[in-house]
Write a structure and sequence with these properties.
single chain, mainly alpha, 3 domains, two-stranded antiparallel sheet
Length: 357
C-alpha cells in the first residue's frame, strides 16, 4: 500500500483573483483531510518525473536548463578530454539531444533559441578539430560527414511525431487532446478544428492573444504548418472536424484573419461568426445595430447602445447602398431560408387582440 505525503504537494494556480504578492495559503481537500498550501509563484516551475511545468507557460526555466546541460557537457566532459571527433558527436547526439528532448516535452523552442543553444557546442567542436570558428556549420551537421543533429531538426521530428501519437490516441490521452483542441477552437473563434485550418499567423497570435504565445498545441500546429505537414482527419468521423454550420459567408473571409483576430473579443462577445447573423431573413440587407440587438443569440447585451467597431467595418465592406443597407451582390445569397437567424416567433395565441371601436 502506497501512502501519499500530502504535505509535500505543490499547487500550480492560474487565477486573476489570487494575489501572488500576499502569499496567502489555499485550503485543499484530500478525501477526509484538509491541507493548506501556498501556490507556486507565477515565475516558478514544479518538477514531475523530471519534466518542469509552469502554470503560465513560462519557458525560461527549462530553456536555461537545456543551455546549462550543453555548457556542462562542454566544460566538464568534452573540452579537456582526449576523445575523437566521432566520440564527441556521439555524446551530443545520444545524450544531450535526448536530455533536451525529455526536458522540453511540454514546450516548443523557437528556431532562434535552438540555434543559440547549439552555438557553444559548435564552437567547441570546431576548435577541437582546429577549424576556424567561421567554418560553415554544414560541415558539422552534414549527414555525410559528422552528422551532428541540430536541436531544431530533432525538435521538429520529436514534437510532430509525439503530437500525432497524442491526437490519434483512442484512450484517455486522446479524449483530453480532443477536448483541449475544441477549447482552442472556441477561444480562437474558428468554424472548424484548428488541426485542419489555422488561418492565423504566429506573430498575430503573439500580438493579439499573448496568453496563447507558448500554448503547446498551438505551437505544434504552427510547427507542422512551417514544415508543410498537414493532417487528414477521418472523413467518416465528422466530430473530429467539429465544424460549425448554419451560415453561408464567414466573417473571417470578409475581413481577413489579421483583422478578425484583432477584433476577436468583440466577435466572441456578440457571438458573431457568419455574415448571415447580420443580415435580414432573405439575406439581401444589412441590419442596423438596433435590429441586430433584437436577435435571440445577443442575449444580455441588448442594453448596449455603442455600435462595436467590427460592426462598422463589416458595414463598410459589405454594403452597396448606405441609405437602404442593401448588400453588394457578392454577399447576397439564395432566398431559401434554412434558419430564423435568431428571430423570435410568437404564437398567434400569445398576441394581444386588437380592440376595435
Amino acid at each position: 500500500m502506497y501512502v501519499i505525503n500530502k504535505d509535500k504537494s505543490e499547487l500550480l494556480l492560474r487565477s486573476k483573483n489570487y494575489d501572488f504578492g500576499k502569499k496567502e495559503k489555499i485550503n485543499i481537500n484530500f478525501g477526509d483531510k484538509k491541507i493548506s498550501i501556498f501556490p507556486v509563484p507565477k515565475e516558478n516551475s514544479i518538477r514531475i518525473l523530471g519534466v518542469w511545468f509552469n502554470a503560465y507557460d513560462d519557458r525560461k526555466f527549462v530553456l536555461n536548463q537545456c543551455k546549462n546541460d550543453i555548457l556542462n557537457l562542454i566544460t566538464n566532459t568534452l573540452r579537456r578530454k582526449v576523445i575523437t571527433d566521432k566520440q564527441t558527436a556521439y555524446i551530443f547526439n545520444s545524450i544531450i539531444l535526448s536530455r533536451i528532448e525529455y526536458r522540453s516535452q511540454v514546450m516548443i523552442f523557437t528556431e532562434k533559441e535552438c540555434n543559440q543553444m547549439m552555438v557553444p557546442y559548435r564552437r567547441m567542436f570546431k576548435n577541437k578539430l582546429k577549424f576556424a570558428s567561421t567554418a560553415p556549420n554544414s560541415i558539422v551537421e552534414n549527414n555525410l560527414i559528422y552528422n551532428i543533429r541540430s536541436i531544431w531538426a530533432n525538435q521538429i521530428q520529436a514534437k510532430i511525431n509525439n503530437f500525432f501519437i497524442q491526437i490519434n490516441d483512442r484512450g484517455l490521452l486522446g479524449d483530453i487532446m480532443r477536448i483541449r483542441i475544441i477549447d482552442i477552437q472556441n477561444k480562437l473563434w474558428l468554424d472548424k478544428s484548428p488541426l485542419v485550418d489555422m488561418p492565423y499567423q504566429k506573430k498575430e497570435i503573439n500580438v493579439f492573444l499573448p496568453k496563447f504565445k507558448n500554448n503547446f498545441i498551438i505551437n505544434n500546429i504552427f510547427l507542422m504548418k512551417e514544415n508543410n505537414v498537414s493532417i487528414e482527419l477521418d472523413k467518416l468521423d465528422i466530430s473530429n472536424l467539429n465544424k460549425i454550420i448554419g451560415g453561408h459567408e464567414l466573417i473571417i473571409n470578409i475581413i481577413t484573419p489579421k483583422v478578425y483576430i484583432k477584433y476577436l473579443k468583440q466577435l466572441r462577445k456578440y457571438k458573431l461568426m457568419f455574415l448571415d447573423q447580420l443580415t435580414t431573413l432573405k439575406g439581401d440587407y444589412f441590419l442596423t445595430f438596433w435590429q441586430f440587438k433584437q436577435r435571440r443569440f445577443v442575449g444580455n447585451l441588448r442594453s448596449s447602445n455603442i455600435t462595436p467597431k467590427i460592426f462598422s467595418i463589416l458595414n463598410d465592406i459589405t454594403i452597396e447602398d448606405k441609405y437602404t443597407n442593401l448588400l453588394k451582390p457578392r454577399y447576397r445569397y439564395s432566398n431559401v431560408i434554412n434558419n430564423l437567424k435568431g428571430y423570435e416567433l410568437i404564437s398567434p395565441n400569445e398576441c394581444k387582440k386588437k380592440q376595435f371601436i
